[in-house]
Amino acid sequence: MLKKIPPVLLLLSFAFSSILAQRAQPREADVLFRTHIVRAVDLKWQSSKEIFGQDIIFPVILYDAVLRGELTAYKDATFKEKISVEDLLQKLCTTDGDSSYPVLKPEQMTEIELGEDLVFDSKRSEHYFLPQSLALFIPVGLNPHGLKEPWAVFHFEDCQKIFRADPRAYSEDKLISGRKVSFADLLVLKCFYNEIVKIGHAGDSYFDQKYQDRVEAFIHSKDAQDGLIDFLYGLYNPE
């Protein structure tokens, strides 16, 4: 029997993902509902620095892992096209005649996006946020191409391994009694401020692509989140 869950608890689950997301993923036959959510985080936000550190080491850790050959980079979240280390380094350079020179450092890639699948498991009568991808972006103002495009997209599980193995990727988070916690776990628990910039499937647009006005895009993002909460409430409380 489905459990009666108040809408306010479902709302909280959008801020703090259940640790159950780290369990084995539910069988596809048991998935009653699935959609994709993309959360944006700017590591320059003070709220981000309080969690991930003032030195913005997050992108540096992933950058170093790519250079060591321990982390595979992809063009987008479909994971169909890999990007070579040479091409990734070229993205951080600008061309002047026949030569290229570096203009960006890894710590300047301060914008990240976390892609998750929101699924409802009919067998357990639970919903989960299952992280799928992690993308590093070069801020538009610093991108030599003048575009908003990811520097690289990674499988979330690959990033988890990198973070857990790197002593720099631990935070003494005030929200969890000052204990040192891996960035890998912080991303699952979502103990940081984030903005949902997309809800839908692979071919769907971001809210700021649908609505050019930033305020309008923000309003529609909140409306979509409310709609998801109402939908989940209906699954937990069928008439």
Key phrases:
single chain; 239 residues; alpha+beta; five-stranded antiparallel sheet; two-stranded antiparallel sheet
Blueprint (SSEs and pairs):
Elements (H helix, E strand, L loop, with lengths): L6 H9 L15 E12 L3 H7 L5 H10 L5 E2 L7 E2 L1 H7 L1 E4 L2 E4 L8 E11 L4 E12 L12 E6 H10 L4 E3 L7 E3 H7 L5 E6 L6 H4 L3 H23 L3
Antiparallel strand pairs: 1-6, 1-11, 2-3, 4-5, 6-7, 7-8, 9-10
Description:
By secondary structure, this protein is of the alpha+beta class. The protein has one domain (7-236). 32% of the residues lie in helices and 27% in strands. It is built from 8 helices and 11 strands. The chain has a 5-stranded antiparallel sheet. The chain has a two-stranded antiparallel ribbon with strand order 2-3. A two-stranded antiparallel ribbon has the order 4-5. Helix 1 (7-15) crosses helix 8 (214-236). The longest helix is centred in the last third of the chain and has 23 residues, at 214-236. It is globular. Mean pLDDT is 80; it is low at 15-22.
| Number of separate structural domains | 1
Number of helical regions: 8
Q: Which strands sit side by side, in order, in the main sheet?
A: 8-7-6-1-11
Rounded to an integer in angstroms, the radius of gyration calculated over CA atoms is 19 Å
Tally of DSSP β-strands: 11
Q: Show unreliable segments.
A: 15-22
Task: Kindly report how far apart the N and C termini lie.
Answer: 12 Å
> What is the helix content?
25-40%
String of helices and strands: HEHHEEHEEEEEHEEHEHH
